[in-house]
């Protein structure tokens, strides 16, 4: 079977899987670049440029150091993609049904924008905890090297708020 009914659970699941693949894999693939960018933002004296940032990171942490934060990146952006792509379709159909077929067509651009914003609201809530852990791992030397180290430490120091204080900036983005 190569297709599915529009608006069916399988349809939403396939949209979600597409989001996991497109967001989770692509963001994980660029972790080394993201790591250097974050470090340049936090310590511009030490990480003077992209190429210098790669050089300093490899010198201090080895080639494996360029992968720091890959697990929270993969998990977080996979969840974000799942929600973004899946909920977009849910909200598009929901809002379209609320407007009626003719109005949904006439107001389709606004409908798509509203569905996208609604999906992003939930997608960012899904992303925020892993993004918080990723940033700590990548930018605070000695804090934690893995997701398994970072999560309990963050929770112990700040509670659940440690994982969601970045949600508002994500929404503003």
TrEMBL record:
Membrane-related topology note: Multi-pass membrane protein
GO BP annotation list: mitochondrial phosphate ion transmembrane transport
InterPro entries with a match to the protein in the record: MCP_dom_sf (IPR023395), MCP_transmembrane (IPR018108), SLC25A3/Pic2/Mir1-like (IPR044677)
Location in the cell: Mitochondrion inner membrane
MF term (GO), any: phosphate transmembrane transporter activity
Positions of Solcar repeats: 10-94, 107-173
UniProt keyword list: Membrane, Mitochondrion, Mitochondrion inner membrane, Repeat, Transmembrane, Transmembrane helix, Transport
CC annotations in GO: mitochondrial inner membrane
PROSITE patterns in the cross-refs: SOLCAR (PS50920)
Chief place where the protein resides: mitochondrion
Domain of life: Eukaryota
Reaction equations catalysed: phosphate(in) + H(+)(in) = phosphate(out) + H(+)(out)
Oligomeric and partner information: Interacts with PPIF; the interaction is impaired by CsA.
Record's function text: Inorganic ion transporter that transports phosphate or copper ions across the mitochondrial inner membrane into the matrix compartment. Mediates proton-coupled symport of phosphate ions necessary for mitochondrial oxidative phosphorylation of ADP to ATP. Transports copper ions probably in the form of anionic copper(I) complexes to maintain mitochondrial matrix copper pool and to supply copper for cytochrome C oxidase complex assembly. May also play a role in regulation of the mitochondrial permeability transition pore (mPTP).
Protein family per UniProt: Belongs to the mitochondrial carrier (TC 2.A.29) family.
Name of this chain's protein: Solute carrier family 25 member 3
Organism field: Probosciger aterrimus (Palm cockatoo)
Gene label: Slc25a3
